[in-house]
Each structure stands twice: as structure tokens, then as C-alpha cells.
Design a protein that fits this description.
mainly alpha; 0% strand
Length: 74
């Protein structure tokens, strides 16, 4: 899902992403908020990979999906 080593890690990142997407107005704003939390999460030894490139890229893809859905107007 996010490239974390464990399901618990992926769940932790998913929670961060869900919590930070709602208040953000742009993809860049969302990424900045989430990146701060990923840096904090990586300080926990079992989540040390939280700031790895694969995780950040997966988060960015999720952010873009979220904002593309918001732009669709029918």
C-alpha cells in the first residue's frame, strides 16, 4: 500500500494521510502536512522507513488521486 515494512506501518501512514487530506486545500499543502508527520513517525524504531522514497512517492500518488476526484464536476 505505502511501502512500509509491516501492515501496522501501512495503517499508521494511512491514518496520517486520511487525517491530513481533509484540511488541505492543495496537493502541495497536503504533502507538506503529511511529510511533517512521516518525519515524526520515522522516529519510532519500528516505523523507521516512514520517510523513505517509496513511502513518500506512494503518499504523493494518494494525494493526487484525492485531489483529482475533487476536481471532477458533473
Amino acid at each position: 500500500m505505502y511501502g512500509m515494512f509491516t501492515m501496522a506501518g501501512n495503517t499508521a501512514v494511512e491514518k496520517i494521510v486520511e487525517d491530513r487530506l481533509s484540511p488541505a486545500n492543495t496537493p502541495n499543502e497536503a504533502y507538506a502536512l503529511i511529510a511533517e508527520d512521516l518525519i515524526k513517525l520515522q522516529t519510532i524504531p519500528c516505523f523507521s522507513e516512514a520517510d523513505d522514497t517509496e513511502v513518500r512517492e506512494s503518499v504523493w500518488m494518494k494525494i493526487n488521486q484525492h485531489f483529482r476526484k475533487k476536481e471532477v464536476v458533473i
